[in-house]
Specification:
With 353 residues, this protein is mainly β. It has two helices and 22 strands. The protein has two domains: 111 residues, no CATH class; 207 residues, Jelly Rolls.
């Protein structure tokens, strides 16, 4: 378990860097799940249990850190792990924690619900790390597959969405929030001019089964082009759209700037949309694109959610997604920046030695 003691036979230090040579985050970030990727250059997989059950993490003083093993594949020599750090210090390159392993008697201590704690605002976290689609949080908002398949991800595997495919999240009261953050890695695999009805839903809930229910649904996020004239987008300059408040009804949705989303087919992009204090904020690759004021109060209902499509219209996302998260708090700009920087390929945020 998290607090159990095991015999330390081997260890490595994981050093965090939030200075300008690392993640470039100047503010402290609290209760942050740090992504740790192990590959043969960093770790001798033959020295640990085949499923990583002897691995633990701790602070320099010895206090145990909660962690989740998303994937441990000794044969392929790949592992993806999330470690909860209570404070990631801004503009710092000396902070570290330790990974240790090698006790033959150690049993598994991983606990995703402790890492993605609902007390820290997490409502749903979907890693897309296998054929099943579990939620890592204690709410157990697990996904039901609507035709998607395991595909390439940014940090391991992701999900591939074809036309009309989706992942459904059954209704749970935790889905109704007064503030929200939706984040995801997306890779569009369709020329923007061919998007279904000009928009592709990343996260959506509707009020009922009729098209009119779209406007009354709770918080939703889509990538959009020029079919809604109010957006100002063109096929060459798509962007992000947020729906789901008492003030955001067609055509007065909240939009990012035109061109916020790259129209390049096959390019991974990290998107984050927050809603709180009457303001929507749109981030792309960790950078604030725009803030839209006077959005009103988020709607609630008793409907299910879908990743990659809308419950009552054909607005499918075609491409790949990875690491979709929904929270009932509005994450700070520093959090969003660190989210992107800590997960992107060849990140300078951490080193293993």
């Amino acid at each position: 378990s998290l607090g159990s003691f095991i015999t330390v036979r081997r260890s490595k230090r994981i050093t965090l860097n939030t200075t300008v040579t690392g993640a470039g985050v100047s503010d402290d970030v609290y209760n942050f799940p740090v992504f740790v990727c192990l590959r043969p250059a960093d770790f001798n997989f033959a020295s640990a249990h085949d499923n990583g059950t002897d691995v633990r993490f701790r602070k320099p003083g010895g206090a145990a850190l909660a962690f989740e093993i998303e994937r441990w594949d000794s044969a392929a020599q790949r592992a993806e792990i999330w470690v909860l750090v209570d404070t990631v210090f801004g503009n710092d390159d000396e902070q570290y924690f330790e990974m240790y392993w090698g006790d033959d008697d150690a049993d598994g201590g991983a606990d995703g619900a402790a890492v993605f704690d609902t007390a820290n605002g997490f409502v749903g976290v979907w890693h897309f790390s296998g054929s099943d689609i579990p939620d890592a949080t204690g709410y157990a908002n697990d996904g039901t597959n609507g035709g998607t398949s395991v595909g390439e991800g940014v940090m391991g595997t992701g999900r591939d969405f074809g036309a009309g495919e989706y992942i459904e999240i059954g209704y749970d009261p935790s889905l109704n929030v007064s503030s929200a953050t939706l984040s995801a890695w997306i890779r569009i695999e369709q020329n923007v001019g061919d998007w279904q009805a000009g928009q592709m839903r990343v996260w959506d809930r509707c009020a009922d089964e009729s098209p009119a229910g779209v406007d009354a649904g709770p918080f939703g996020v889509a990538v959009d082009r020029d079919d809604y004239g109010a957006s100002g987008f063109t096929n060459d300059q798509p962007g992000l759209r947020m729906t789901g408040t008492d003030q955001l009804a067609y055509p007065n949705y909240a939009f990012s700037n035109p061109g916020a989303i790259s129209s390049t087919v096959g390019a991974w992009q990290h998107i984050t949309v927050t809603a709180a204090d009457d303001t929507a904020r749109f981030y792309v690759n960790g950078v604030l694109d725009t803030a839209v004021a006077e959005i009103g109060t988020l709607n609630t209902n008793t409907r299910y959610a879908r990743i990659g499509n809308t419950p009552n219209l054909n607005r499918g996302f075609e491409g790949d997604m990875d690491e979709v998260r929904f929270s009932g708090v509005a994450r700070s700009a520093a959090w969003v920046k660190l989210l992107y920087e800590s997960q992107r390929d060849q990140t300078p945020f951490y080193s293993i030695e």
